[in-house]
Amino acid sequence: MPDYDLKEVKALNYKRPDIVNGYTDQTLYLNLSDHKIAIKPVAEKTKKTFTGGKGYNLWLLWNAVQPNTKWNDPENALCIAAGPLGGTPIYPGSGKSIVATLSPTTASVMDSNVGGYFGPYLKFSGFDALEIQGKSSKEVVVFIDGVNQKIQIFETSGLPQNAYELSAVLTEHFAQGKPRNISVVSAGPGAKNTLIGCLNFTWYDPKRKRARYKQAGRGGVGTVFADKGLKAVVACWNNVTADTNNPADKARLKNVAKLHSREIVELDPKQNEMAKIGTTHLVTIMNDHDLLPTHNFRYGQHPQAPNLGQEVYRRLFDPGFDGCWMGCTVACSHGIKDFVPLTGPYKGKAVFVDGPEYETVAGCGSNLGIFDPHTVAEMNFYCDAYGLDTISVGTGIAFVMECFEMGLINETHTGGMDLRFGNRLGALELVHQMANAEGFGQIVGQGVRKMKAIFAKDFNADPDIMQDIGMEAKGLEFSEYMTKESLAQQGGYGLALKGPQHDEAWLIFLDMVHNFMPSFEQKAEALHWFPMFRTWFGLCGLCKLPWNDIIPEDNKDTDEPAKVIKHVQWYADYFSAITGNEMGPDDLIKMSETVYNFQRIFNLRMGFGRRQQDDIPYRAVGPVTEEEYESRAERYDNQLVKTYKVAIDGKSTAEKIAILREHREAQYEKLKDAVYKRRGWTSDGVPTLKTARRLGIDFTEVIELLKANGANS
Amino acid sequence: MIQVAGKQMAWRDGMTVSDLLDDLKDPHPYAVIRINEQYVTRPNFEHTLVPDDVEVFLIPMIAGG
Whole-angstrom distance between the N-terminal and C-terminal Cα of chain B? Predict the structure, then answer.
């Protein structure tokens, strides 16, 4: 007998609709306060305007909340969707889900994408999106059984706390001998006890006979999930084929899918070998170009970085197929078998670590001054099991370590811990404390923005220096790339709607290494096109890696190699083949532009979304400390003399830092102007009425909101 | 002999990655190449020797993120 209990408190039998051209045209609504289960139709206008995936999530969330709704109010909704192309097993990278909710760290709209089987299984069960409102006083598990056409809500007791064990237990419980039919979404104690919780989405690995998982990490989506009293949401589906989405033109779908899939099989081994080493190849590449964050983004390079590079993980990763969705030929979701942690509840026990990816290696390794791959693996394991975002954990602890080294905080604040850079056990201890709501970890788990306020108020730390070195914007911690020498990537982070995450625009190499965009206008064009195209993947249920991480051999000879236009055309064909709506590359951009602008307007509605919210800490722009300046003095001196025509003879380092800062911050403000103009926004960063009308989002409330924020034309 | 982007190419003693790219006369601004399983980045092209009998992969662009 299991030592846990699942007691059904509500159930709904339903008739699963046929999927037509990638859509079910209905969404599933749950209210956990009163256990309401309802099915809502999707209006044709909604479908046309918002496409699906993130677009649907934003529309559901917009209608669920008010401008004064807080993240932990019952009316805040947590929405999960795939998209019309999501779940296609023959096209690589077609298994993404996207999550949207009001964030505990930014107080505004957050979106986070993730692999695993849940989004496709949700759709195949009959729902284009899932919207969860309300709060349960007791922990509940929701089961969406598409095979038997039944939704159930269970009150639970005795289930494991952490996602590692919970995923396995619930997979076995609901599988009825067919574990590949199950996908579990869960958070963990870290998500419950901090504001930086992630969600784990499982996929079943038949070779290793275990539920594996990927993470929707950013912005505390797991914290919202846990706050609602959700233990897990489980979806069940069987029989995934190319027909399951009922494509409008199956022959066309098969043709374009075969082209892209074959190309990846042929070229990935010749390029970055993602099927073998995931994204870990980026570690040494970023390090060599002074782009790998070390010591809280002070520097971009460290002699020990190769200890965290692909040559190490090539040996650590367990060989085999690691696709987080069926049939994906990128198959980059690698893991470490029989890893034995040195700390915590699994100390001395062999576990399977899902990861690490580049972001975790940089965030929980180099950025903490930790160059030991086993510590990174242990941080990775516990963050996932506890439901903590490895990026926010890494960037948050990096901030703490720099504050400690600067003397802004000391051992009386940290519970006696010496938290200088490189303290591996200290970093791990903080992760355990976050999960258990203990000690100094409780403060760290609030995220960088709140830590800055707490350190200033309670520890009398200097707020100005913390503003410069605390790597957050809009309340979200930076992901793991250095931006000091790439103005375009400063914009890629600072002008991103949800905060500094690289999924909108990753322009570092194009801008800094290749110098493909020397003018403001070219940077602005890139900061228009790339966020728009990358947004499109989130509307459709796709992973972006097949687009530009494996590149056609003749791509370099095209007019705009950065866009990988051959693949963009394939994606247009893919969309047309599934939905029956004939689309070209420019149409994809228009779809995204609509949702992108709507999200900016949503931020505005929540009290954000203006120019001042696009500011970034100076650490992202240039050297804050004399040590940083002097470490790259030749570079900075040259820029002052040659670019800004400043006579530097006789000037102290502090004076040069101040002059450089004035110029670099002015450049960033000019970039904002150029990008806002290109995006059709006012100089305050507000979409104009003309833009809203052009995109068909000129709803009455939107127009009133824009006018109230200075958009008059 | 070495193999570069799938084609045989003559190897010479002391050949660096920069020499190899010059010989190729390919105008693409490569920032990263791979020699068997070892990545070499542009800052190291000039002082990294290409061994004999290796396979060289020209990485077209680093997309990141």
Answer: 36
